[in-house]
């Protein structure tokens, strides 16, 4: 069974409440972890991508590290599906497409997409209630962005 095989049908939520920024970061973190491994390079790229966003502009490095430590702790204790469901419950509708775009960018950044990553993106657009046409446009743009 893959990491995300149970997400779509799961109602398990993390016991820790997430704030808005944590919910957004959780989705990006799950995209990084979707292949079962988080390299130092991926973790650094994640911080860089999020650090460019308005939502995280006021977050110094130590606050970002503490946030990721909290999210990783939830992921390790309660599982990816609990973390994802908790994040989706908090994420406002106006940030769902942005979260999907960031997750897609992260998944496509290394030039190859694993089965687990494909499943994650498929599950994610549905869980975030993003229209399929919009999800396809986002994926197309991120494929162009990550070609070179």
What does this structure look like?
- The chain is mainly α.
- The protein is built from 7 helices and no strands.
- It has helices at 20-33, 40-51, 61-78, 80-90, 96-108, 115-127, 132-145.
- Helix 1 packs across helix 3 (61-78).
- It starts with 19 loop residues before the first helix and ends with a helix.
- Mean pLDDT is 86; it is low at 1-10.
The string of secondary-structure elements, in order, is HHHHHHH
Outline the biggest β-sheet: none
Helix percentage: 55-70%
Which range does the strand content fall in? Answer: under 5%
Question: What's the end-to-end separation, in Å?
Answer: 33 Å
Q: How many strand elements?
A: 0
Task: Give the overall form.
Answer: globular
Cα-based radius of gyration, to the nearest Å = 14 Å
Structural class: mainly alpha
Number of helices: 7
The residue ranges in which pLDDT falls below 50 over 5 or more consecutive positions are: 1-10
Q: What is the mean pLDDT?
A: 86
């Amino acid at each position: 069974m893959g990491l995300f095989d149970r997400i779509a049908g799961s109602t398990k939520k993390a016991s820790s409440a997430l704030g808005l920024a944590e919910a957004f970061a959780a989705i990006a973190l799950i995209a990084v972890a979707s292949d079962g491994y988080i390299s130092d390079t991926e973790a650094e790229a994640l911080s860089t991508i999020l650090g460019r966003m308005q939502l995280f502009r006021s977050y110094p490095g130590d606050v970002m590290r503490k946030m990721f430590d909290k999210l990783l702790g939830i992921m390790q204790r309660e599982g990816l599906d609990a973390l994802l469901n908790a994040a989706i419950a908090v994420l406002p509708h106006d940030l769902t497409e942005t979260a999907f775009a960031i997750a897609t960018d992260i998944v496509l950044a290394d030039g190859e997409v694993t089965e687990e990553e494909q499943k994650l993106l498929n599950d994610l657009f549905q869980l975030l209630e993003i229209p399929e046409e919009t999800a396809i446009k986002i994926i197309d743009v991120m494929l162009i962005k990550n070609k070179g």
